[in-house]
């Protein structure tokens, strides 16, 4: 079994070694001299060595005492480091914050929140993971992520908070006849089958009687945007992505689907000041910038 000693008794030992006096050390700690002596006597009994020898009215460390003193300095130093880390953690500083994002589109909605958080918490190491909603939820449940921004709804074991909805619109390369083109005969570049975004798109297209001929799939909306910009494929993108590209035109002028964006965390997760701080920023930025329209 490891040596069973308390940090308090090690602190007493260190102070007596510094002052060479039980009485003065006890005064430093605000305890009685007999209480300090008893604690150090118990330390000697636990270790099975003599720690001090008498030198007139002073106390000096024995060889074993010096060795234990070196150990005490290291342990107490590491204990102070741990205490400083815990205090910083309580105040949302230090450590690693692991954030999951559905795709590059989320970065169009939350860049300000991430930037402000980095500036306000420079000692926090922020790690971003971009993946599908299902993959991110799995990683969150496996304790590999701390906070996820994904497509709703939530799943069992997670708490979901809806930030708003994102409009998905049909885009094609700007040019003659684009708006009047026949979508049933067009090639399409869409997110992969099985993703929540693709399910929303398929349902929205079906409502308009469109059965897309999909020739390319990608989880990355920037890839879909670039494919559509050079033609001839049509695609469905968040307005924040497609609407910024001058080479694309919004074919129908309306949303084909609405994608609910949620902020997810584990139901069992303990309070984390860093997670709370970023969550507040995400809510504020989404509301103030109008990047996400509140769900109806």
Quick synopsis:
With 296 residues, this protein is of the alpha/beta class. It contains 11 helices and 10 strands.
| Low-pLDDT stretches | 291-296
How many helices? The count is 11
Q: What is the arithmetic mean of pLDDT?
A: 88
Order of SSEs: HHHEEHEHHEHEEEHEHEHEH
Radius of gyration: 31 Å
Overall geometry comes to: rod-shaped
Structural class of the secondary structure composition? Answer: alpha/beta
DSSP, total strands: 10
CA-to-CA gap between the ends? Answer: 61 Å
Number of folding domains?
3
CATH architecture descriptor name of the largest domain: 3-Layer(aba) Sandwich
Specify the CATH class of the largest domain: Alpha Beta
User: Helical proportion?
Assistant: 40-55%
List keywords for this structure.
single chain; alpha/beta; Arc Repressor Mutant, subunit A; D-Maltodextrin-Binding Protein, domain 2; disordered C terminus
Task: Please give a structural write-up.
- By secondary structure, this protein is α/β, with parallel strands linked by helices.
- It folds into three domains: 7-90, Winged helix-like DNA-binding domain superfamily/Winged helix DNA-binding domain (Arc Repressor Mutant, subunit A), CATH 1.10.10; 96-164 and 261-289, 3-Layer(aba) Sandwich (D-Maltodextrin-Binding Protein, domain 2); 165-259, Periplasmic binding protein-like II (D-Maltodextrin-Binding Protein, domain 2), CATH 3.40.190.
- Helices cover 45% and strands 25% of the residues.
- The chain has helices at 7-19, 22-29, 33-47, 63-90, 104-109, 111-120, 133-141, 196-207, 221-230, 239-242, 273-289; strands at residues 52-55, 58-61, 96-101, 125-130, 147-151, 158-173, 187-190, 213-217, 234-238, 248-266.
- It has an eight-stranded mixed β-sheet, with helices on both faces. A two-stranded antiparallel sheet has the order 1-2.
- Helix 1 crosses helix 2 (22-29), helix 2 (22-29) packs across helix 3 (33-47) and helix 6 (111-120) packs across helix 11.
- Residues 291-296 have low confidence and may be disordered.
